Amino acid sequence: MIDKAVLWDVNGVIIDDMRIHFVSYREVLKELGCEVNDEYLLAATVGTPPAEFFAAILPTIENPISMDEILDRKRESYLRLIKGKMQSPPGAIELMNDLQRNGFKQAVASGTTRIEVDTILAGCGVRDFFDEIVSCEDVSKGKPDPEAFLKAAALIGVDPARCVVLEDGEFGVRGAKAAGMKTIAVLNTQTRERLAAADIIVESLSEIDAQRVLKLLSA
Fold first, then answer.
1. In this structure, are residues 1 and 214 in contact, taking their beta carbons and an 8 Å threshold?
2. How far apart are CA 106 and CA 99, in angstroms?
3. pTM summary value
4. pLDDT tens for each residue of 173-209
5. Do the Cβ atoms of 100 and 125 come closer than 8 Å?
6. Which of 64, 65, 155, 170 is deepest in the core (most CB within 10 A)?
7. Is the domain of 125 the same as that of 173?
8. Structure confidence at residue 1 as a pLDDT band (50, 70, 90)
9. CATH code for the domain in which residue 133 is found
10. d(CA 61, CA 133)
């Protein structure tokens, strides 16, 4: 029986796509007469599902648009911009292989849409590593609520206390801790200070291997 697992965030962990997301947000909002900069987007969108971000900003936009329509535009923009640019950061695929060799289950717990998750995993050539996927459509509350992590753990049949979460965002780290899981934060999108609640903080996934994950679980 497999009694250990690693749950992966996608954006900023399996793929370094923050800048592409920022371009797609700006593109969509500019069409509606709303100009935003990267500093604003970094504070407002990292770790936040698109629907939550747009729910806060739509009331300020003069041009009326429905939530469904703006989400469709954002998804279409992102998928167009990401095409041909899908590559996992250093250490990610090596870690997936090492975890698999050492008997870990692996699952995705992401705040993005299922079509984006599927596109990224296929584009990076890593889909077969994952036993289950939880996307934003599968939960009622986004991070920092622990729902996505608890659902992923339940789907793969592993106790939350035996799960380690790989995250790049403060909300994800907080959600994982609320789920009773260990956390490893990667400094891809946010500062060390923002990620201070994580059990381990690394510059790159190249610093992590299965033995270090096992040591964290036994700590």
1. no
2. 8
3. 0.91
4. 999 999 999 999 999 888 999 999 999 999 999 999 9
5. no
6. 170
7. yes
8. low
9. 3.40.50.1000
10. 34
Cα(3)–Cα(154) distance, integer angstroms: 12
Tokens 């079509």 locate to 115
Nearest to 187 by CA among 7, 6, 12, 11: 12
Domains held by the chain: number: 2
User: What are the two backbone dihedrals, phi and then psi, of residue 129, each rounded to the nearest 5 degrees?
Assistant: -75, -20
> Are 107 and 150 in contact, with CB atoms under 8 Å apart?
no
Q: pLDDT tens digit string along 100-134?
A: 999 999 999 998 889 999 999 999 999 999 999 99
Query: What is the Cβ-side half-sphere exposure of residue 36, based on CA atoms within 13 angstroms?
Result: 26
| Shared-domain flag, residues 27 and 125 | no
CA distance 52 to 56: 7
Residue 187 to residue 12: CA distance in whole angstroms: 9
- The kind and range of the H/E element at 201 are strand 200-202
Phi, psi of 106 (to 5 degrees): -135, 140
CATH code of 49's domain: 1.10.150
